[in-house]
Design a protein that fits this description.
about 260 residues; alpha/beta; Rossmann fold; 6 strands
Length: about 260
């Protein structure tokens, strides 16, 4: 990357729309300068001052997240390999730091849900600028267990409903739920129902990511693809850097830029 180092999701070329009042032919736009407005899927431009985006990270905290990764780029020689949970913690913290330095930081809020066979963390959506650097995003911090993906999605829906009820005068609100894990679930049908309930809410996007370790398979990919709001909102990742990129790309494509 050069210049402003714009973030390009999933290797696609981004097209900038200068001034926020022109619609280009493609919907994959990136806003990294504060003067570019991102307009996904033919939506009308919305002035930054009238937009609020509530993000909910939904993190798998099951036993599979304790598996070690085969990372190369970020691993320090001589130290044990990071677990998927440790890499996810770093990725989430990096995303918070990135959003806090954005020219649109005041537009973003973030909640965090972790689950295994129960919801272990349920931190409500708060302004991104109010999140301290000490916040922990380790999905296994409260223990591990089985995988009930639907519990995480149902908790995210409740967070979104409460957050929206608290801002009835905002001209444009949107939400993106970023789910990651191994894609396995004790009740896939209930998970699909929970995802459908989220996607029925206006201006809610669900992004789903298969976080695959060396011993994982692709068996959970099909469910995660069905949970996502479309092909652009699904990705398989293998390390912290790819997970961070997926998180940022999802926010960019769903809500109008960073």
């Amino acid at each position: 990357m050069t210049g402003q180092d714009p973030f390009v999701p999933f290797g696609e070329q981004a097209v900038a729309v200068q001034g926020g009042n022109q619609l280009a032919e493609t919907s994959d736009y990136i806003d990294s300068t504060g003067t570019t407005i991102v307009i996904p899927d033919g939506a009308e431009p919305v002035a930054a001052a009238t937009r609020e985006e509530g993000i909910v990270e939904v993190a798998d905290g099951s036993q599979s997240m304790t598996e070690s990764l085969a990372e190369t780029g970020e691993q320090i020689p001589g130290l044990p390999a990071r677990t998927k949970a440790a890499a996810a913690t770093v990725a989430a913290s990096d995303v918070v730091a990135r959003l806090q330095t954005s020219s649109k930081a005041a537009n973003f809020s973030l909640g965090f849900v972790a689950f295994n066979d129960r919801v272990t963390v349920d931190r409500p959506i708060v302004p991104i600028l109010d999140i301290p650097a000490t916040d922990d995003f380790d999905p296994t911090a409260a223990g591990t267990g089985g995988t009930c993906m639907y519990l995480g999605l149902e908790a995210a829906r409740k967070q979104i409903e409460r957050w929206r009820q608290a801002r009835p005068g905002t001209l444009h609100v949107s939400n993106v739920v970023v789910l990651y894990g191994d894609g396995l679930c004790s009740n896939p049908q209930r998970t699909l129902q929970a995802a459908a309930a989220l996607k029925e809410i206006p201006n809610v996007t669900v992004a789903a990511c298969l976080f695959r370790g060396p011993r994982d398979t692709d068996s959970g990919a099909q469910l995660l693809q069905a949970v996502a709001s479309g092909p652009r909102f699904y990705k398989t990742v293998h390390d912290a850097e790819q997970l961070r990129e997926f998180f940022l790309a999802s926010i960019t494509l769903a809500g109008g830029g960073i």
